């Protein structure tokens, strides 16, 4: 964009110089006076062009500096994103391991409850059998 602006400014200055030279040629002034005016206008336009070029150069240097800062920021952001991605990958593995362990413990809890229920049923059946034999030996 800076190069395009520089080209446009340069082209505009050249067109302005050409137009001023055409106007001066068409006015029919004295040749010496015309040359003097042309030289003065050329010097003025050259200084204008120089100022424009210096301004464009300053703008380009500012743009380059901003671009460098932007690249630096992007590099830092990319590094942070990569670190976060690695962290998420490791956390994903940990979460999957935790899910497997919770599922395993849930199955063990169910198995333990079933075994406790069966043991309690066996115990109660044994107690009832013993009571039946002691209290009601004739049945």
TrEMBL record:
One GO molecular-function entry: SNAP receptor activity
Similarity annotation: Belongs to the SEC20 family.
UniProt xrefs under InterPro entries: Sec20, Sec20_C
Location(s) in or outside the cell: Endoplasmic reticulum membrane
Lineage: Eukaryota, Metazoa, Chordata, Craniata, Vertebrata
Organism, as annotated: Polioptila caerulea (Blue-grey gnatcatcher)
Primary localization class, coarse: endoplasmic reticulum
Highest taxon above the source species: Eukaryota
Pfam families: Sec20
Key words of the record: Coiled coil, Endoplasmic reticulum, ER-Golgi transport, Membrane, Transmembrane, Transmembrane helix, Transport
PANTHER family assigned to the protein according to its UniProt record, in alphabetical order: BNIP1-RELATED, VESICLE TRANSPORT PROTEIN SEC20
Cellular component, GO annotation: endoplasmic reticulum membrane; SNARE complex
Annotated membrane topology: Single-pass type IV membrane protein
Listed name of the protein: SEC20 protein
Domain Sec20 C-terminal, chain residue ranges per copy: 45-135
Gene Ontology biological-process entries: retrograde vesicle-mediated transport, Golgi to endoplasmic reticulum
S-adenosyl-L-methionine in keyword set: no
Membrane-crossing segments per the record: 114-131
């Amino acid at each position: 964009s800076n190069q395009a602006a520089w080209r446009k400014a340069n082209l505009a200055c050249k067109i302005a110089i050409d137009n001023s030279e055409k106007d001066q040629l068409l006015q029919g002034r004295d040749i010496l006076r015309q040359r003097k005016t042309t030289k003065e206008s050329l010097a003025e336009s050259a200084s204008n062009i120089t100022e424009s070029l210096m301004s464009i150069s300053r703008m380009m240097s500012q743009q380059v500096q901003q671009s460098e800062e932007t690249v630096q920021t992007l590099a830092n952001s990319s590094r942070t994103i990569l670190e976060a991605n690695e962290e998420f990958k490791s956390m994903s593995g940990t979460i999957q391991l935790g899910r497997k362990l919770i599922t395993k413990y849930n199955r063990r809890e169910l198995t333990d409850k079933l075994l406790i229920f069966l043991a309690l049923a066996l115990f109660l059946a044994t107690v009832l059998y013993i009571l039946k034999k002691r209290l009601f030996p004739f049945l």
